[in-house]
Amino acid sequence: MFCLVAVSDDSQKATRCHMESPVDPSDAWPELAPDYEQARSKEDSLDRLVEWPAQRDILGDVTERSVLDVGCGNGGKLAELVGDGATACVGVDVSGNFLSAPPAGLEFIRGDLNELDSMSGLAGRTFDRILFLQSFGYAKDPVRTLQTARAMLADNGFILLSKTQPIRYAVERAEQNKTSLGEEYFSTARFSYLSSWNDQITLRKRPYTISDLINVFGAAGLWIETAIEPQLSEDARRRYPHKQAWMNKYLGILIFKLRPHSAQ
User: Fold this and answer.
1) Which residues of 213-249 are buried (b: 16+ CB within 10 A; e: fewer)?
2) Closest to 81 measured CA to CA, from 95, 96, 99, 94
3) Beta strand ranges found along the chain (DSSP E)
């Protein structure tokens, strides 16, 4: 059982607890959040080179658009959208590790993305864009979380959701367990792995396939308008060959633009 759900002053004790008992990512996020922000700020971060440019492209013109970023981290991406003209924006994150001076038009709510429907700061509000930028994996009930988000969409609004390619984890497990890619990709057994942001924390994750994701979207009353698998630009490939090697092996991420079914 996980013995820590918030940042501890006793880092050695925290490390022992994590290593002895792998935890669900949603429980560990308050401690991982600063490590994530540090990792994505690096010059060769795939978030900077691949993910955010692709996500931003799908979002398009955000002038006068309201945006809800679910699992926003420190809120840096949302602040950038406000700078591009977005208005009445809200970032939700359980860590509370927010920008100290957010721009006008941006507010933060410290809360768990699994409890969106009970947050007073979101009651009765709708948004033109709702983002799950690598945060969807922290949903304990994925269908319910998306249903709640769908109910908050304004007319003609959409959800932007990004998720790690499930093949990445299958490749890692196949190498570790000396099994085949197919065995691990279709396995339903939960697995443990070291966080890439903090190798002192071991996480436990439930596996998923691409069809699992599609079925979750459908069960939540959503359809896929666009799906992309962004890659490094030619310039980035030359500048960061080690990142291209990683992408060649693990494929990167999936990004979905989701719309609500009109009948639901």
Assistant:
1) beebbeebbbeeeeeeebbbeeebeeebeebeeebee
2) 99
3) 67-70, 89-93, 106-110, 127-133, 153-164, 191-194, 202-205, 222-228, 253-260
Report helix, strand and coil shares of the chain as percent, to nearest 5.
Answer: 45, 20, 35
Residue type, 130: I
The token pair at 173 is 């497990």
- What distance in Å separates the CA atoms of residue 256 and residue 205, rounded to the nearest whole number? 21
- Give the 3-state secondary structure of residue 176: helix
Which of 57, 217, 62 lies closest to 150, judged by CA?
217
> Would you state the structure tokens that stand for residue 150, as one six-digit string?
């769908």
Nearest-5° angle of CA 126, CA 40, CA 170? Answer: 90
The confidence score (pLDDT) of residue 15 equals 33
∠ Cα 25 30 187 (to 5°): 5
Q: Classify strands 222-228 and 253-260 as parallel, antiparallel or unpaired.
A: antiparallel
Q: Which residue type, as a one-letter code, is found at position 44? A: D
Domains in the chain, start-ordered, CATH in brackets?
42-170+208-260 (3.40.50.150)
- Residue 200 pLDDT: 75
pLDDT tens-digit profile of 220-233? Answer: 999 999 999 999 99
CA distances from 262 to 59, 157, 167, 227 (A): 21, 12, 32, 20
Q: What is the pTM of this model?
A: 0.86
Whether 191 contacts 205, CB under 8 Å: yes
| Whole-angstrom distance, CA of residue 159 vs CA of residue 132 | 8
Picking from 39, 31, 27, 24, the residue whose alpha carbon sits closest to that of residue 10 is 31
Distance CA 65, CA 80 (A): 13
